[in-house]
Design goal:
487 residues; 3 domains; 6-stranded mixed sheet; 12 helices; 21% strand
Length: 487
């Protein structure tokens, strides 16, 4: 069996793992990136969540990726809100009863995608939403290939897909070695867990959070009086394509036409790809708690059946969809929430609502402004924010572990905070911070707990990561350069 020694080992190549690998690779670390699936990308690609929603903070590596993808035809674009079910036509009818219709707007730039906060609600502030809410849809296949090519060009970064670990050597609060599924043993002084449920941390027997915490646990007024097993809902996203032949596609045998799993069909977010196709995200396809209770072998088929019934509903109730054909669903479910770590600091509802001006954390390494956004359950909905908030570095450090960071939606967040800071660009920023932190730790000989935070923050700002609001002029000038000629 081979043995490999690295500076940094990253488990999981979703948004957080990609951000960590690129950041560490650019700083010259010897990196091993492991991904259990056959391709990179996680939720943002394999599950079809191939839209970066509008929001503050997506300036560092996400912008670098955007510029690279701009070189490819129909690879990436920026959308505006075209129609929405909450807004009315002149005759008082809903503009778009199925949900949200978000279409590519070629007049927009990346800077236009970097704010959400400030609206009372989508329904109440149509003009504000039309002005500021612009997301970034991209072709998942091109995204995967571009990221893989970029990482392959880094001489000290090794990417292994269809590979993960089978055993962890853990003692005295440190991971010493991993045994891979092929029998190889690998080790590094530092590790980053970018899996969706912090599986590496779980393998070391550490305490995890799951479901809704009680109101008193983190002093959150929006939390329930007693804890629950509720987690945010999941989606099986499918894709539709314009066609010249108008028709209602037949349902496969055995699938009902009615919504058998709830009182009525839900709304959907429909985002146009640069090539004219649409990404259809039923909100949600399945409640999160129900998803956790289903057998993994059958839950995907159930969600597929629901999405087929939903597509039939769209075509029969809204004739404009008869000019589209369904071209398939994505290979895995888009999961919004599972387990989360108990970290040195837990981001809470108070952090999210207080915002940067009220937070006193000295170790902010990313900012965000997405609402507290719950899909499914007894109390779904969005609570918009009045300002961006910061995410402390301590949220990435599992309590009691010395050489591991978590850069994924499984970080140190309460359930309420996780509903806000779970988006792909935010996860990529956490990964960029984690990969840079590994460099700082190796360079100084310090642990993550004793890291030189001002040095980490300086390096992140040198990489054009926004850590304050409003955006510093130097970063704004960089983001204004949409062409990528030198990379």
């Amino acid at each position: 069996m081979k043995e490999g020694r690295f500076d940094l080992i990253i488990i999981g190549a979703g948004s957080g793992g990609i951000g960590a690998a690129i950041a560490a690779g650019r700083l010259g670390l010897k990196v091993l990136l492991l991904e259990k699936n056959s391709r990179l990308g996680g939720n943002a690609a394999v599950s079809g969540v191939s839209v970066w929603e509008m929001g503050a903070g997506g300036t560092g590596i996400p912008f670098d990726i955007y510029r690279r993808m701009k070189k490819e035809r129909d690879a990436i674009g920026i959308y505006s809100f075209n129609r929405h079910c909450a807004w009315k036509n002149e005759n008082g009818t809903s503009q778009f009863p199925p949900g949200a219709d978000l279409t590519i707007d070629p007049t927009l730039r990346y800077l236009d995608s970097l704010r959400r906060f400030g609206a009372r609600s989508l329904k109440e502030d149509e003009l504000f939403v039309r002005k500021y809410w612009h997301g970034v849809p991209f072709e998942p296949g091109i995204y995967q290939n571009m990221v893989k090519k970029w990482l392959d060009q880094m001489p000290d970064v090794t990417v292994r897909t269809s590979e993960t670990y089978s055993d962890v050597a853990y003692s005295d609060s440190r991971i010493e070695e991993l045994t891979l599924t092929n029998g190889e043993k690998v080790s590094a002084p530092f590790y980053i867990d970018s899996t969706d449920s912090a599986y590496l941390v779980q393998s070391c027997g550490r305490e995890m959070l799951f479901g809704q915490e009680s109101r008193h646990r983190f002093d959150e007024p929006g939390a329930p009086e007693t804890p629950s097993r509720f987690v945010n809902g999941v989606s099986l996203i499918f894709r539709i394509r314009p066609t010249e032949r108008r028709r209602v596609e037949e349902l496969p045998g055995g699938i009902g036409k009615d919504c058998w799993w709830r009182d009525a069909f839900p709304l959907a977010s429909m985002v146009q790809y640069p090539n004219g196709d649409y990404n259809v995200n039923m909100l949600p396809t399945m409640d999160g708690q129900e998803y956790m209770e289903w057998d993994p072998k059958t839950v995907y088929q159930e969600c597929k059946n629901r999405s087929l019934a939903y597509w039939h509903y769209l075509q029969t109730e809204f004739p404009e969809f008869q000019s589209y054909k369904r071209v398939g669903e994505f290979l895995s479910l888009g999961v919004r929430e599972t387990h989360r770590i108990v970290a040195e600091y837990i981001l809470t509802e108070l952090d999210v609502t207080t915002g940067l001006n009220g937070q006193k954390h000295p170790d902010i390494i990313a900012i965000a402004d997405h609402p507290m956004d719950v899909h499914g359950g007894d109390n779904p909905g969005c609570r918009e924010l009045s300002s961006p908030y910061g995410i402390p570095f301590r949220c990435l450090i599992p309590e009691g572990m010395e050489n591991v960071l978590v850069a994924s939606r499984a970080g140190g967040f309460s359930s309420i905070a996780a509903s806000s800071c779970r988006l792909s660009r935010t996860m990529m920023q956490l990964g960029q911070a984690a990969g840079t932190a590994a460099y700082v730790a190796l360079d100084s000989g310090r642990s993550f707990q004793d890291l030189d935070i001002p040095k980490l923050q300086d390096l992140l700002e040198d990489q054009h990561v926004q850590l304050s609001w409003p955006m510093p002029g130097r970063i704004r000038k960089h983001i204004g350069k949409e062409r990528c000629d030198s990379e």
